[in-house]
Design brief:
Strands 26, 27, 34, 38, 39, 40, 41, 44 and 46 form a 9-stranded mixed beta sheet that branches. This protein has a 5-stranded antiparallel beta sheet with strand order 31-36-29-28-37, with no helix packed on it. It has 3 domains: 120 residues; 215 residues, Methylamine Dehydrogenase, Chain H (7 Propeller), CATH 2.130.10.130; 304 residues, Jelly Rolls. By secondary structure, the chain is an all-beta fold. This is Aldos-2-ulose dehydratase/isomerase (AUDH) Cupin domain-containing protein.
C-alpha cells in the first residue's frame, strides 16, 4: 500500500495491491491486482472510496508511487515477490505503470516491464529522492540494490549496495535481504541503511558508509546488530518490517523493527545510532505484541511521531495468538531518553575503576577497550538481555557476570550442541575462552552479560612468545571520549620484589601490573578486581591460601610461555603446607593453556557458595601459579590475569554447561 494525490485535489488517495493468493508458493495466477482508491474528501462519513483499476501481475506484493522517469505525472512501480505460482527460482518482473490522460475513465494504466532478469524474491523496498527523480532501494535475494532511471542514458540502472545475509544459504535456502529503510543523521539524509536479512529473516544489520561522496561511489560496510532466534521449520525467522524516523526529535533518525513471533522474538525494538563508524546502536524493546508491519504518524497531534502495528496472522507462514492493531504513543521525547554509557571509567589511586550497569538492566551494547598487551587488546563489554554479539576466530571471551550462549555443530558427530558460559567454569578444571558458534554469534537471555574480550591480530597461532620483559609492549587503549587522566595512565609491569621484600622473591623473574576495579554503578558494589602477572620459566609465584583475603580468585592465561604453566594446588584445604617439608609431588597440577581459564579452587558449600572463615575470608587449599620449563627456549614468560571476585557475588551454577566439562588440553 502507498499514498499519493492522484486526483490533484490536494488530498491523498490510496494505492493498494490485493488478491495475492495463499502464500508466495501458492499464489493466485489471476491476482496481483493494483487499484487506487479515490479519497472522498471531507465527506468521508457519507461517501465511499471509489475504486479505480490500475493493472496486475501475479504475486504483486509491494508497490511504490512516485516520479521515477519524469515529474509531470504519477508512476507506480510494481514489485511482485515471485513471477508465477510454484516457482521461487525464476526472475521477478519489475513493472512501471504510468498515469493515463484520464484517470477517472481509464480501464487500466499503461505499463512496461523495466526489468525481468535481475531480481528474485523481492520482499520490500524503500523510496528516496536524489534531488530530481525518485529512486528505490530493493531488498531481494540479491541483497540490497539501488534501482533508478538514468536520465543521461535514458535507461534504468541497477547499482549493487550489499550482499545481505549469506551464512544461512545452506541451512535454509534463503539468502540476501528482506527489508530496508534509510536513516539520516545530522545533515546527512542518507547516513545509514537498516536491513532485515534474509527473506523473513532473523538478522538485523546496518550498512554505513566511508564517505559523503555520491551514492554510486560510496563503499558500504555491513554490521550485524542482532540475530533473533533461529529459523523455523520453513527456514524463516521472526523479523518482517522496519522503518526509519526521528522519534526523539534530536535530528537523527532511529529505526523500529517488527518481530512477528513467537515470544521471546516478538514485538518491536527501537534502535538509536550511537557511532556509525563502528556500527554501534543502542536498543530498547518498546512492544511485546506480534508485529507484521509498522505505520508511523503523529496519531495524537503532539508533534511527536507515534507508531502503529498489526499482528502477523498469515496461514502457511505464522499465526499470532489474539491478533490485533495497536497504536503506541511516543513518550520517549518527553522523558528526554538519551543513550547513557553502560560502562564508565575513572582514575582512582593510579588505577582504573570501571563503573558498569548490571547486565540484566543494561539497555545497550557497549565496548570499552582499555589495554593492549603485545598486540592483544582487552575490552570490557556489556551485552543487554536478549541480545547478541558477533564472534570470530580472533576473539576470546571471559564472562565476568551473566550468561552467554551459542550453538556449535563442529564436533565429530556434527550434531548441534547448545553451550553456555557463566563467570566461572567447573571447579578445578580448565575451559577455553575460544567460541565455535554455528552462526558466529553469542546470545544472552534475561541475565545479559558483562565480558572481558580478548582480540588478537591473527589467532592463537600468531601470539608472540615473550622472552624479555623489556620487549613486552603494553599500551593504554582507552578511546578518546574517556577522560584525559585515564587515557594518560601508564601501565607498567613492576618486578614483584619491589612490593615484597621476602628473600624468596629477590631477583625473581616475576612481575605484576595493577590494576582494574569493576563496581556496579547503581550502588557502587564491587564485582571484581583484576591484575596482571608474568613469570619466567620455572618460577614459583608463591604458595598461599588467601588466609587474609575476602575474594574468590580465578586465573585467565593469556600467554603460556612454556606450554606447561598453570595452577598447582593441594587437593584439600585441610592439608597443611610446610615450605621445608611439603614436596612438589603433593600438589595437583592443572595446566592452563593460552586463552584458557580455570574454575574455582576455593571450598564450596551445599548452597554453591564459597566457604568463609569467621572473619569473612575465603577458604582455599594451598596453591600457586607454577611456570613451566621448555628447554627449547632460554626464556619464555607466562602472562595471566588474576580475577578476584567479590565473595558475596560468587554463588556458582552447579548445572555445568557442555563448555564447562573437563577440557582437552592441546599440545603447546
Amino acid at each position: 500500500m502507498d499514498q499519493a494525490d492522484i486526483t490533484g485535489n490536494g488530498i491523498n488517495d490510496i494505492i493498494i495491491c490485493f488478491q495475492y493468493g495463499n502464500t508466495m508458493l501458492d499464489s493466485d495466477p489471476e491476482g496481483g491486482k493494483i487499484i487506487w482508491l479515490e479519497n472522498p474528501g471531507k465527506n468521508t462519513n457519507k461517501g465511499l472510496w471509489k475504486m479505480h483499476y490500475v493493472g496486475k501481475s501475479t504475486a504483486m506484493h509491494r508497490l511504490k508511487v512516485g516520479h521515477f522517469t519524469q515529474t509531470k505525472r504519477w508512476e507506480i512501480l510494481g514489485l511482485p515477490i515471485v513471477s508465477k505460482p510454484y516457482d521461487l527460482l525464476s526472475p521477478v518482473p519489475v513493472l512501471l505503470f504510468r498515469q493515463p490522460d484520464n484517470i477517472f475513465n481509464a480501464t487500466e494504466w499503461p505499463y512496461e516491464i523495466i526489468n525481468q532478469q535481475f531480481f528474485h524474491l523481492i520482499h520490500d523496498a524503500t523510496l528516496f529522492n536524489d534531488g530530481g527523480l525518485d529512486n528505490i532501494l530493493i531488498a531481494s535475494r540479491e541483497g540490497i540494490n539501488w534501482l533508478y532511471f538514468n536520465q543521461n542514458l535514458t535507461q534504468w540502472t541497477i547499482v549493487h549496495i550489499g550482499d545481505g545475509e549469506k551464512e544461512q544459504k545452506q541451512q535454509t535456502a534463503y539468502y540476501g535481504s528482506a527489508g530496508i529503510c534509510v536513516g539520516g543523521v545530522g545533515n546527512d539524509s542518507f547516513a545509514y541503511m537498516a536491513a532485515i536479512e534474509p527473506f523473513h529473516g532473523n538478522v538485523i544489520s546496518v550498512y554505513t558508509k566511508n564517505t559523503n561522496s555520491s551514492l554510486g561511489q560510496i563503499q558500504w560496510t555491513r554490521y550485524v546488530l542482532d540475530v533473533y532466534g533461529y529459523p523455523d521449520k520453513n527456514g524463516q525467522g521472526p523479523a518482517h518490517h522496519l522503518v526509519c524516523a526521528d522519534f526523539d526529535k534530536d535530528g537523527d533518525d532511529e529505526f523500529l523493527v517488527s518481530l512477528r513471533g513467537p515470544s521471546p522474538n516478538q514485538g518491536v525494538y527501537f534502535y538509536k545510532p550511537i557511532d556509525l563508524s563502528r556500527g554501534l546502536f543502542a536498543k530498547w524493546k518498546v512492544s511485546d505484541d506480534s508485529a507484521a508491519r509498522i505505520a508511523v504518524a503523529d496519531f495524537d497531534n503532539d508533534n511527536l511521531l507515534d507508531f502503529a502495528t498489526i499482528s502477523y496472522y498469515v496461514l502457511g507462514y505464522y499465526t499470532a495468538e489474539n491478533p490485533s492493531i495497536n497504536i503506541f504513543y511516543n513518550r520517549f521525547a518527553q522523558k528526554n531518553l538519551q543513550a547513557k554509557n553502560e560502562i564508565q571509567v575513572i582514575k582512582q589511586n593510579n588505577e582504573l575503576l570501571f563503573k558498569v550497569s548490571r547486565p540484566n538492566k543494561a539497555l545497550q551494547y557497549q565496548e570499552l577497550p582499555f589495554i593492549t598487551i603485545d598486540g592483544i587488546t582487552l575490552s570490557l563489554e556489556i551485552i543487554p538481555p536478549n541480545s547478541s554479539r558477533q564472534v570470530d576466530n580472533n576473539t576470546y571471551i571471559k564472562v565476568l557476570s551473566g550468561i552467554i550462549m551459542w550453538t556449535d555443530s563442529s564436533g565429530e558427530s556434527h550434531e548441534s550442541v547448545n553451550y553456555s558460559r557463566t563467570f566461572v567454569s567447573e571447579p578445578r578444571k580448565v575451559a577455553p575462552l575460544e567460541i565455535h558458534s554455528d552462526n558466529n554469534r553469542i546470545t544472552t537471555e534475561s541475565d545479559g552479560a558483562l565480558l572481558i574480550v580478548f582480540k588478537t591480530l591473527g589467532g592463537i597461532n600468531n601470539i608472540h612468545r615473550v622472552d624479555d620483559m623489556e620487549k613486552l609492549i603494553v599500551e593504554n587503549s582507552l578511546p578518546e571520549y574517556c577522560s584525559q587522566e585515564t587515557r594518560q595512565l601508564d601501565f607498567q609491569f613492576v618486578r614483584y620484589d619491589q612490593y615484597d621484600s621476602r628473600p624468596y622473591f629477590q631477583g625473581l623473574e616475576f612481575y605484576n601490573l595493577k590494576g582494574f576495579g569493576i563496581n556496579f554503578a547503581d550502588n557502587d558494589e564491587p564485582l571484581c578486581y583484576m591484575q596482571l602477572w608474568t613469570a619466567g620459566q620455572g618460577v614459583n609465584a608463591g604458595v598461599h591460601n588467601h588466609e587474609k583475603d575476602k575474594f574468590c580468585e580465578v586465573h585467565v592465561c593469556i600467554i603460556n610461555g612454556s606450554g606447561e604453566g598453570g595452577m598447582h594446588y593441594l587437593s584439600s584445604s585441610k592439608q597443611d603446607y610446610d615450605p621445608l617439608t611439603t614436596p612438589d609431588s603433593a600438589f595437583e597440577k592443572l595446566v592452563v593453556p593460552s586463552f584458557y581459564e580455570h574454575g574455582p579452587l576455593w571450598d564450596i558449600d551445599a548452597q554453591s557458595k564459597p566457604v568463609l572463615r569467621n572473619d569473612g575470608t575465603v577458604v582455599y587449599p594451598w596453591h600457586k601459579w607454577q611456570a613451566g620449563i621448555n628447554r627449547s627456549f632460554n626464556q619464555s614468560f607466562d602472562v595471566w590475569i588474576a580475577v578476584e571476585y567479590n565473595s558475596q557475588l560468587s554463588t556458582i551454577n552447579t548445572a555445568w554447561s557442555n563448555e564447562s566439562k573437563p577440557a582437552f588440553i592441546p599440545d603447546m
